[in-house]
Design brief:
273 residues; alpha+beta; Adenine-n6-DNA-methyltransferase TaqI, Chain A, domain 2; five-stranded mixed sheet; globular
Length: 273
């Protein structure tokens, strides 16, 4: 039944101007397609196997991330800071934000090839694809800019303040996102864990009456470790963990895509078992 409800896309039947909702009547009148029980079990078995693999990979990534965070805490938070001091992030790491190409120019979005990240897409993981793509012309005629791969992104506005992610390849982002550009002294492994552990701080630092927000300047004022040798050693210790996490995240994305393609085909008998 959960797979049927996902396939049925009940949310498409929601109505309401101020707030979308589903009435009991609409749900009650919705027709249910039920294939023979044996076929239901086979469909559920196929889809469940994909979900189980996705869950396993997510749990493995959570474990790998926890390992990297534990070492970070030990080296940069809990140990005595006798051989280093805290310095502003902005002094050692380049930051930037993006922009939104004019919506009036639909050609900026039609047939786009460049991934454009919005703050709602930051979910603490590697980003492989985005909801929208923009064209090279859109980049030229807006504040959007090409960000190098492994840039660490932080949401600055609204309900997503403090959320973060990392791009797996060169992409762009909108103005609600601050990008930390990794360099030889401050690799993405350090910046990503630093950002993850700063999430609650960013949320607490957010201000604004109409919309809670943080600024790029505020992010740049936060401090990081000055001992680049130690950061380099940390990178060597955890780099393999992050490469495995990235590989897992890509596999998760592919499995989810495979499941979402199979689901309607199985439920509509387009594919016979």
């Amino acid at each position: 039944m959960p797979y049927f409800l996902k396939w049925a896309q009940l949310l498409n039947l929601a109505c309401g101007a101020a707030q979308q909702n589903l009435s009991v009547g609409v749900i009650g009148d919705f027709p249910i397609f039920l294939p023979p029980l044996d076929e239901q079990k086979r469909i559920a078995s196929i889809l469940s196997s994909l979900d189980d693999k996705i869950d396993l990979l997510n749990r493995e990534n959570a474990t790998l991330e926890a390992m990297a965070e534990t070492l970070f805490r030990q080296w940069f938070i809990e140990e005595a800071k006798e051989d280093w001091e805290e310095i502003p992030l902005g002094d050692v790491v380049k930051t930037t934000s993006g922009g939104t190409p004019s919506r009036k120019c639909t050609e900026y979005y039609n047939d786009g090839t460049i991934s454009w990240v919005k703050s709602k897409e930051l979910q603490g993981a590697f980003i492989y694809s985005t909801e929208e793509l923009i064209t090279e012309d859109a980049v030229v005629h807006s504040s959007a800019k090409i960000l190098p791969e492994k840039s660490v992104l932080i949401a600055m506005y609204g309900a997503t303040v403090g959320e973060y992610g990392i791009i797996s390849r060169a992409m762009t982002c909108n103005q609600a996102v601050c990008a930390l550009i990794p360099n030889d002294n401050y690799p993405y492994t350090y910046l990503l864990v630093w950002t993850a552990l700063m999430k609650e701080d960013f949320i607490n630092l957010a201000c604004g009456a109409a919309q809670q927000n943080i600024s790029q300047d505020l992010i740049k004022q936060q401090t990081v470790c000055s001992n680049t040798d130690k950061i380099g050693l940390y990178d060597k210790q955890v780099r393999a963990l992050f490469e495995k996490m990235e590989c897992n995240q890509k596999q998760i994305m592919l499995l989810q895509k495979q499941r979402d393609i199979l689901l309607p085909k199985l439920m509509s008998n387009e594919i016979s078992l």
